[in-house]
Design a protein that fits this description.
Layout lengths: L22 H19 L4 H7 L4 H8 L7 H10 L5 H15 L15 H10 E8 L10 H11 L5 H15 L9 E7 H5 L7 H15 L3 E6 L5 H4 L4 E6 L7 E6 L2 E5 L2 H18 L5 H9 L3
Parallel strand pairs: 1-2, 2-3
Antiparallel strand pairs: 1-4, 4-5, 5-6
Helix pairs in contact: 1-5, 1-6, 2-3, 7-8, 10-13
Length: 303
């Protein structure tokens, strides 16, 4: 089943009212984007706005790009300079500012994740559509505890048991996104090789396949498609990736690429379009393949 990445932006949804979703990385991005739009709409140059808060142009650029923290009085001074007087709008900016400086739930795991991963976790939590392709392993959000433990022990062989457990707790917390009241729409293209590759002790892969089958059949917001080995070159040139889309219009679509050193984030529209096309081509390669439920059932029966 091919699930198009249709537009889901809803101008009636604002992060200010629920700024805990996505934490401070998302609030900083939205706050910076709205400040930049206010400045540009009023024809104010960066230099003039920076002077208003006694800051360098570089600092204001970082603020508008959602990079780093922000001071309440700086935001208030900018809003006054831009002529914002509506109480509801001021309240919304105040909520975003609080969210931009508040610690996120994953801060207790900061010693386990690269610094750039904070932004990825925030964007993942805030996403309303998660579309991905995985060729080597089951994606994090769909892993069972046993499969995740085996993958973690392979990826971090020197970690003590306590650290492994904390990594698994972090993953479990991320996976709660799929069962919350308003879960993201999650569509995953899984390469046949990833489904046939045994991971962990006997029984781990069987449990993982059963879990995928339940998700596919019982969770209306989760859709699985299998990219068959017969897809050949189409899958051979594709790399594992995740594309995120958000309800908040200030947040553009983002592509996340997993690497050994961390997650690389791409948000340049022209590059995002290239990855979107790659996903569309893979989806086309699955259009005549066996239904995912049938495929998983056959695997479970040893075929």
């Amino acid at each position: 089943m091919t699930v198009p990445m249709a537009a889901v932006h809803d101008p009636g949804i604002t992060l200010a009212g629920e700024h805990e979703r996505g934490g401070r990385p998302v609030c900083r991005s939205v706050l910076g984007s709205r400040l930049r739009r206010l400045r540009q709409d009023r024809g104010i140059q960066l230099q003039a706005a920076a002077r208003q808060i006694g800051a360098s142009v570089a600092k204001l650029c970082r603020l508008e790009l959602g990079q780093g923290g922000c001071k309440d009085y700086d935001i208030a001074a900018l809003l006054d300079f831009y002529g914002v007087t509506d109480e509801d709008e001021l309240d919304e900016f105040a909520a975003l500012t609080r969210g931009a400086n508040a610690p996120s739930w994953w801060q207790e795991y900061s010693d386990l994740i690269p610094s750039q991963a904070e932004t990825h976790l925030g964007l993942e939590e805030a996403a309303t559509v998660i579309r991905s392709y995985q060729s080597q392993r089951i994606p994090d959000l769909l892993q069972t505890a046993a499969y995740a433990r085996a993958i973690t022990q392979l990826g971090f062989p020197r970690d003590p048991v306590q650290t492994v457990e904390r990594r698994l707790h972090l993953l479990e917390r991320r996976q709660q996104a799929l069962t919350r009241a308003d879960p993201p729409r999650c569509w995953v293209l899984l390469d046949e090789a990833a489904l046939r590759r045994s991971v962990g002790a006997p029984g781990v892969m069987e449990g993982q396949l059963q879990h995928l089958l339940r998700l596919h059949l019982d969770h209306p917001t989760v859709t699985l498609d299998v990219v068959p080995l017969a897809a050949g070159g189409t899958a051979a040139v594709a790399q594992p990736l995740t594309m995120l889309r958000f309800a908040e219009p200030e947040l553009p679509d983002v592509v996340c690429l997993d690497q050994l050193s961390g997650t690389v984030r791409i948000d340049k529209p022209s590059e995002v379009d290239r990855y979107r096309l790659a996903l569309d081509n893979l989806a086309a390669a699955t259009s005549t393949s066996t239904d995912a439920a049938e495929f998983l059932t056959r695997l479970l029966h040893g075929h």
